[in-house]
Amino acid sequence: MNLISSSPSRLEADPLRLAARAVLAVTALSGLLHLAGCSLLAALPKAALCPFKAVTGLPCPGCGMTRAFLALGRLDFAGAYAWNPLVFPLAALTALYAAGRVPRALGSGKLLNLALLGVLVFWGIRLLNRIG
Length: 132
Description:
Elements: H1 10-13, H2 15-35, H3 40-43, H4 51-56, H5 65-73, H6 77-83, H7 87-98, H8 109-131
Helix pairs in contact: 2-5, 2-7, 5-6
């Protein structure tokens, strides 16, 4: 009797889905720890977590995303928005991807290009606000 399957599970075959589930688990853990009076945010280093920012001194489009997801886990929507407004669409897509329910429209190159353009415009505005 063979107890070990010879074919990999769907989860093992898709490391991105595993990463999405890990992000959601840490986000939920942040909320649970907040209810217990602890904070994952306090455990993060005060230094920049972003390698791009560490090298250039400028924020990347995803800067603040770790802290934004942790704030989202605590249901601190204003705090999450303050760290990075892109957390809301990214959290929704992460949840959909983790559940295996990625909308077909995301497979479209046009939609992906439009989303990338939106992120770049957001980044440009963020940089201009920082300078001005």
